[in-house]
């Protein structure tokens, strides 16, 4: 047995030596593209990066909207952005994103009734979308993103929604006297498509945005027949870009 | 709504009026009065005469005080004043800069943004037997015994070290021999505007020890007898100012008679991209070139970016006249994995030479540890350069650089990982290089080169078993280079990709061959 192991060892060593005349360093300088090809990179022609954002819906005088609890009515997003440099001072951009909108109603909305002493409503909207924007660079920035502002439009598809209602009845003997939580999934009164405009300004990794939803979140029919109001449309927030 | 408007307003004003840093360069130095004998240290005057640099070079004249005063009234503050580039760096907002821009005496305003890296990597702090071997490898790679046997220790040579702090350099035993002889001539912290450099990052202490550290009779560096100027130019919290401080420190070193600047620093991503590493684009590179023009030998680390996307030399190591140092593994003297490579963006060779990329260094607490990075290869070469200058005091800075290159073990073979290789002290005692008898032959066979080794070194894993080669175009650019570990008499190198004439150059066992194909 020992002899067999020894022979195997010898074979391995011999094999090692047979193939051991090897390139320890093998560098092809002709493959270095970074001296001439600035196609990709933060100031290159093409650049991709990830971002996450957190925004808050705010009251605004432009439209009639349902009162929501500000701060708790917010928006979380993340996505992949792309920039195509056109001039030193201007680039065209686009992104693919996922958005999570959370509207917390301040007062009873759909389930308003004298029979309920407490009524909390929340609407959650999950959507995926895209944004196209023009990015204007301010001042001389070398190999960093530097100062910029964006003007863009956004569009998104709502792929799921939830209307969550928590109620407690006033009448002790009534059916709803105990606390109840009702979850309505994928309700029909939320529009499938949303669109809006965005203004963003920032420096390097950090940017602040103001978004305004031009479309109604609720369907036209729902606003005409039941609600008359839409949910807040203006949101402000911050994005962290990962370069 | 009001709150929202207020928030947007605040954010917009943050962007629009945020305080920035700028270089303001002036058109002239009208009315400046300059007496070199008052301004320069006597060693600086000596160096200038030796290097044939005028004592009345206009770049040394002071910046016009009235220009500075006018700018100072408008901007928030002035950070540094540069005689060499006739300007000031300032903190100012956009409005203030627009006002300054309108003055006739303002030539150019350049925004400053930069990110700096000290060119070292993390190290552990275990002191072990292997570190004795490490120190021996560091020194024998340079044949440092030639210097120590002949009492050459850099005596009379003045070295400026630019780094991030020198804590412990004023107390620990490793520098006692220098303190006892008052050979720390001057110190200055360019960030704190103070003479106390003995605090903050220990990187400078580590680097200093690789030039001149000594415990008993054991030397950590070769220039234990040199004089020193210690400048703190690097800071960790604010990332925008190091290049300015580098420039200010270079002027300070020039004024105070430095013969050599050791800079274990590099400026790369994200401020710059590789195509800008042409030795001229960055301010710090222009400052380093100016220091070279004033007769100072600038020794700079190539960087530690080979194992990331950047890969190549940073600034100011990209400057033609800077002696750029790459790192090698102290065991086999081959490129250490992190050591950046050349060439520069305009395809000049870098590094010029190389040294161990792992070194034994002194820590601020008086202990010793092994440290990795071209930060530590650089001071080893700086110490070597000081000894070479002591032997040949008549050499000017460019002659010294050239002699150090010629002394290197691969010279005249070169590549973009090792440069000319490890400088050899023996060269400075006998400049006649003895090359071995032919050790190999090259023959073209179809699309390959057949390499026939005449005399295989039978010591397995000896560095003499390494066959270094490069293929370069006729304009001097290397197309390909490599190192092959040799165990058999014949092997082949593919050249099928080349239609044009190429030059094949190789080094094996101290024998060099160059052939056109």
Please specify the SSE layout and strand pairing.
The complex is a heterodimer of chains A (243) and B (517).
Chain A: H1 2-18, E1 23-28, E2 46-58, E3 74-85, E4 90-104, E5 116-138, E6 147-169, E7 180-185, E8 193-203, E9 206-213, H2 220-227, E10 234-242
Antiparallel strand pairs in A: 2-3, 2-10, 3-4, 4-5, 5-6, 6-7, 6-8, 8-9, 9-10
Chain B: H1 2-17, E1 20-26, H2 36-39, H3 42-50, H4 65-74, E2 77-82, E3 87-92, H5 94-101, E4 106-111, E5 116-118, H6 129-140, H7 145-149, E6 158-163, H8 176-180, E7 184-189, H9 203-212, E8 214-215, E9 218-219, E10 227-232, H10 242-255, E11 260-263, E12 265-267, H11 283-293, E13 297-301, E14 323-328, E15 353-356, E16 358-362, E17 368-372, H12 374-391, H13 397-407, E18 440-445, E19 448-453, E20 466-472, E21 478-485, E22 490-494, E23 503-508, E24 511-516
Parallel strand pairs in B: 6-10, 6-11, 7-10, 11-13, 13-14, 14-15
Antiparallel strand pairs in B: 1-3, 1-4, 2-3, 5-12, 8-9, 16-17, 18-19, 19-22, 20-21, 20-23, 23-24
Helix pairs in contact in B: 9-12, 10-11
The appropriate CATH architecture of the largest domain in chain B is 3-Layer(aba) Sandwich
Distance from first to last alpha carbon of chain A: 59 Å
Report the strand count of chain B: 24
Radius of gyration of chain A, in angstroms, nearest whole number = 29 Å
When the domains of chain B are counted, the total is: 3
What's the end-to-end separation of chain B, in Å? Answer: 77 Å
Specify Rg of chain B, calculated over alpha carbons. Answer: 25 Å
Order of adjacent strands in the largest pleated sheet of chain A: 2-3-4-5-6-8-9-10
CATH class group of the largest domain in chain B: Alpha Beta
Q: How many helices of chain B?
A: 13
Shape of chain B: globular
């Amino acid at each position: 047995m020992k002899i067999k192991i020894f022979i195997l060892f010898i074979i391995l060593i011999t094999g090692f030596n047979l193939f051991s005349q090897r390139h320890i360093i093998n560098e092809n300088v002709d493959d270095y593209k970074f001296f001439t090809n600035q196609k990709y990179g933060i100031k290159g022609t093409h650049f991709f990066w990830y971002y996450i954002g957190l925004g808050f819906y705010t009251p605004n005088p432009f439209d009639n909207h349902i009162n929501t609890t500000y701060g708790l009515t917010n928006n979380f997003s993340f996505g992949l952005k792309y920039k195509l440099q056109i001039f030193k001072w201007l680039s065209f951009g686009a992104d693919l994103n996922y958005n999570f909108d959370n509207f917390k109603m301040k007062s009873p909305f759909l389930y308003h009734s004298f029979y309920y002493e407490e009524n909390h409503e929340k609407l959650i909207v999950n959507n995926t979308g895209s944004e196209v924007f023009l990015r204007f660079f301010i001042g001389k920035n070398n190999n960093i993103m530097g100062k910029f502002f964006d003007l863009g439009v956004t569009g998104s598809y709502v792929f799921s929604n939830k209307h969550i209602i928590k109620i407690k009845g006033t009448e002790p003997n009534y059916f709803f006297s105990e606390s109840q939580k009702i979850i309505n999934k994928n309700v029909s009164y939320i529009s499938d498509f949303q669109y809006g405009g965005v203004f963003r300004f920032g420096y390097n990794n950090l940017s602040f945005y103001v978004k305004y939803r031009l479309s109604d979140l609720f369907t036209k029919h729902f606003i005409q027949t039941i609600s008359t109001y839409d949910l807040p449309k203006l949101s402000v927030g911050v994005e962290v870009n990962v370069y | 709504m009001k709150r929202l408007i207020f928030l947007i307003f605040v954010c917009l004003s943050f962007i629009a009026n945020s305080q920035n840093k700028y270089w303001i360069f002036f058109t002239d130095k009208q009315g400046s009065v300059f007496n070199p004998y008052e301004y320069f240290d006597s060693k600086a005057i000596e160096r200038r005469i030796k290097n044939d640099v005028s004592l009345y070079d206009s770049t040394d004249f002071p910046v016009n005080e009235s220009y500075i005063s006018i700018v100072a009234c408008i901007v928030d503050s002035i950070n540094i004043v540069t005689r060499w580039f006739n300007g000031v760096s300032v903190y100012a907002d956009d409005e203030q800069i627009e006002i300054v821009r309108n003055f006739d005496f303002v030539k150019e305003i350049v925004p400053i943004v930069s990110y700096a890296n000290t060119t070292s990597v993390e190290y552990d702090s275990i002191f072990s037997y292997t570190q004795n071997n490490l120190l021996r490898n560091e020194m024998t790679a340079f044949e440092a015994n030639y210097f120590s046997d002949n009492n050459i220790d850099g005596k009379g040579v003045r070295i400026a070290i630019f780094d991030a702090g020198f804590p412990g350099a004023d107390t620990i035993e490793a520098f006692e021999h220098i303190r006892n002889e008052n050979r720390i001539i001057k110190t200055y912290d360019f960030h704190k505007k103070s003479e106390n450099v003995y605090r903050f990052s220990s990187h400078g202490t580590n680097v200093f020890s690789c030039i001149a550290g000594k415990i008993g009779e054991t030397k950590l560096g070769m220039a234990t007898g040199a004089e020193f100027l210690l400048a703190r130019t690097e800071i960790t919290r604010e990332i925008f100012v190091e290049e300015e401080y580098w420039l200010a420190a270079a002027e300070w070193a020039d004024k105070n008679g430095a013969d050599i600047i050791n800079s274990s620093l590099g400026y790369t991503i994200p401020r710059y991209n590789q195509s800008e590493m042409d030795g001229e684009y960055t301010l710090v590179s222009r400052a380093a070139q100016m220091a070279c023009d004033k007769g100072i030998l600038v020794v700079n680390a190539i960087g530690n970016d080979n194992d990331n996307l950047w890969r190549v030399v940073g600034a100011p190591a990209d400057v033609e006249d800077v002696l750029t140092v790459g790192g090698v593994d102290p065991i086999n003297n081959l490129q250490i994995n992190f050591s950046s490579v050349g060439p520069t963006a305009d395809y000049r060779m870098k590094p010029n030479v190389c040294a161990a990329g792992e070194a034994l260094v002194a820590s601020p607490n008086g202990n010793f540890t092994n440290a990795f990075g071209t930060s530590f290869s650089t001071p080893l070469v700086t110490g070597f350069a000081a000894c070479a200058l002591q032997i040949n005091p008549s050499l000017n800075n460019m002659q010294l650089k050239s002699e150090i290159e010629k002394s290197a073990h691969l010279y005249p073979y070169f590549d973009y990982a090792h440069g000319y290789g490890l400088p050899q002290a023996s060269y400075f005692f006998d400049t006649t290089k003895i090359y071995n008898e032919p050790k190999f032959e090259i023959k073209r066979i179809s699309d390959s080169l057949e390499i026939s080794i005449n005399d295989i070194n039978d010591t397995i894993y000896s560095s003499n078993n390494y066959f270094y080669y490069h293929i370069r175009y006729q304009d001097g650019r290397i197309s390909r280079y490599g190192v092959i570990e040799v165990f058999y008499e014949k092997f082949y190198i593919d050249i099928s990709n080349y239609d044009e004439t190429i030059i094949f150059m190789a080094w094996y066992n101290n024998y060099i061959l160059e052939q056109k194909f």
